[in-house]
Amino acid sequence: MEFNTVTLALFLAGGLRLCVPVLLAALGETVSERAGVFTIGLEGLMLFGASASALGLALTGSPVLALGAGMLGGLLAALMLALGTVLARANQIVMGIGFNLFAIGATSLIRQLWLSGAPAAGSMRSVSMLKLPGLSDLPVVGRALFSQSPVFYLAVVIAIALWCLLRFTRAGLLLRAVGENALAADAAGHSVLRIRFSATLFTGLMAGLGGAYLCIVASGGTFVDNMTAGRGYLAIAITIFARWMPLRVLIVAIVLGLLEALQFQGQYLGVDIAPSLLMAMPFVVALIAWIMMGKAGAAPGDLGRPFLRNSGR
């Protein structure tokens, strides 16, 4: 296949589609980490969202309701995680890793009990393609940017909204204050536990939607064991690499999506790199992000630290 504008458009469109699950999860992680909660269990939240969406699709036959079921699954899973890390003040890293292992087993059991005989899925066009009138007819960018899933456009809107919230609103200021210095925020009369609990639930909603997108849109409604395949950890790395800024998260997620798309279409673009090496590139970025986190002053001041003062909040 000779390189041309159609090939370029397909590559760009594929990269944008591939970035959506990690973008949504990373936006949720940005909120919880800004509040001081290191949600290592993001991988498990995505898995619960994916399995809940597959179950919702099997019960209702509606891909839209299935996405809603995925968000609900992520929310309920985040509720369990928040009870342990925020209220019970468990070690966030240890509990997050344990939660991910639990999610792999629990979602596999859900598949065996309720999804093994699920009927074939119908049309997914309502959630997989939305052509913006006029814009979708533009050369290259029309097919790449303006013929995407509605969930992609929603993710972009959420990224912009979170940037505005964190930068310009009192709620965003409180969220950042709790993450930077929880004791000072508590002394000022703000409920640290309530803010952190709410931030973790929001992370569950976003991770659940990301997992639902992966199952319903990217995989045609089919759930397989451990289908997130490390995307939750990658989303955490994106959050760190982007310095906890939503618009940077959007940009980094798109870049990693394009890197992933090179695995499938790189040969048509003249990229002479082994697909196995391209497959490892996003995780190389993840390693760089973890190293960057070690720099003094890079992360929110109280990130990963439980709020231990017995203030009744």
What does this entry look like structurally?
The chain contains 13 helices and two strands. The protein is mostly helical and 313 residues long. The protein is 70% helix and 1% strand. The longest helix is centred in the N-terminal third of the chain and has 30 residues, at 5-34. The chain has a two-stranded antiparallel sheet with strand order 1-2. The N and C termini lie far apart (62 Å).
Q: What sequence of helices (H) and strands (E) makes up the elements?
A: HHHHHEHEHHHHHHH
Oligomer: single chain
Major sheet characteristics: 2 strands, antiparallel
Radius of gyration: 20 Å
User: Which strand order does the major sheet show?
Assistant: 1-2
- Considering DSSP H and I runs of 4 or more, what fraction of the residues is helical? 55-70%
Counted by DSSP, the helix tally is 13
What average pLDDT do the residues reach? 89
Termini separation: 62 Å
Helix/strand-derived category reads mainly alpha
Q: What best-fitting shape do the alpha-carbon axes yield?
A: globular
Report the uncertain regions: none
Approximately how much beta-strand content do the residues carry? under 5%
Structural descriptors:
313 residues, mainly alpha, two-stranded antiparallel ribbon
How would you summarize what this structure contains?
The chain has 13 helices and 2 strands, in the order αααααβαβααααααα.
